[in-house]
Amino acid sequence: MDVALAALVFAPALALGSFLNVVAARLPERRSLVKPRSACPTCGSEIAWHDNVPLVSYAALRGRCRSCGTRIGWRYPAVELATALLIAASFLRFGLSGHALVAAYFCAALVVLSAIDAERRILPDLIVLPSFAVVLAANIALEPGRTVEWVACSLGASLFLFLALVAYPKGMGMGDVKLALLLGAGLGKAVSVGMMVGMLAALVFSTVLFARHGLGARKMYIPFGPFLAFGALVALFAGDAVLSAYLGLF
Ligand SMILES: [Zn+2]
Predict the structure, then answer these.
(1) C-alpha 71 – ligand 1 centre gap (Å)
(2) Distance CA 238, CA 244 (A)
């Protein structure tokens, strides 16, 4: 039954992913999310509805604008697909429940924040802080018995990154410190798994970068947000399994 549910939410989740692309492109520039209609950034021609179908249009147009032939960034289909898969996974994992809705929202927020951070190296407060408030309130409403955990894990994760920021200012920014609030509110104690996996992923990535580019890699900027988001998603869907496997080592 949950498989049917996951399949059912896939198409609307693709459409949501399409909207998240609009958010990622416009919100950091404080442009309206509803007007005007989407247009090609190069030639300015408006994009017809039939060229704006998630995934399908990108494939049909082979990733190019119909009018001018300019390449369309792969961020667009990637955000659509990631959003749809993660929201479907939320319903698959948590069934038809409040938990699935919170997980779906949490995933969508992490996708759009990762897209913005990868492209512009910022994590807008306008998304991070309201999402933190929404996710914290929803999780407290769903599981009031874990209120202390939701709050403590938000503050703890944020404080941890703040101390890391003080110790090593070049590694990250205040945006990451605020993002940790959202991660704690969404994950509770599994946030420890999320942070650990996120930092390991960033470490592996920078090691590969150093191996390929040598000392030149020191000048490359690596946004930390997408790695934290990746760790958080691992924790959301497999946090308990990772924690018990880890504790099982001792
Ligand atoms: Zn064009």
Answers:
(1) 8
(2) 10
- If you measure from the C-alpha of residue 14 to the centroid of ligand 1, how many angstroms do you get, rounded to a whole number? 23
Distance separating alpha carbons of residues 22 and 191, to the nearest angstrom:
29
Global confidence as pTM: 0.93
Contact yes or no for 96/8 (Cβ under 8 A): no
Contacts (Cβ under 8 Å, ≥6 apart) of 2: 91, 92, 95, 96
Going from the Cα of 82 to the center of ligand 1, the distance in angstroms, rounded, reads 25
Write the pLDDT tens digit of every residue in 159-213: 999 999 998 877 789 999 999 999 999 999 999 999 999 999 999 998 898 888 8
The CA 39 to ligand 1 mean position distance, Å, reads 8
Q: How much distance in Å is there from the Cα of 33 to the middle of ligand 1? A: 20
CA dist list (Å): 65 to 31, 50, 51, 68, 111: 22, 13, 9, 6, 24
The alpha carbon of 220 and the centre of ligand 1 are apart by a number of angstroms equal to 30
Question: What is the whole-number distance in angstroms between the Cα of residue 64 and the centre of ligand 1?
Answer: 8
* pLDDT tens figures, 41-59: 889 899 998 998 999 999 9
| Measured distance CA(109)–CA(115) in Å, rounded | 10
DSSP bridge pairs for 39: 46
SS (H, E, C) 98-156: HHHHHHHHHHHHHHHHHHHHHHHCCCCHHHHHHHHHHHHHHHHHHCHHHHHHHHHHHHH
| Residue 62 CA to ligand 1 centre (angstroms) | 13
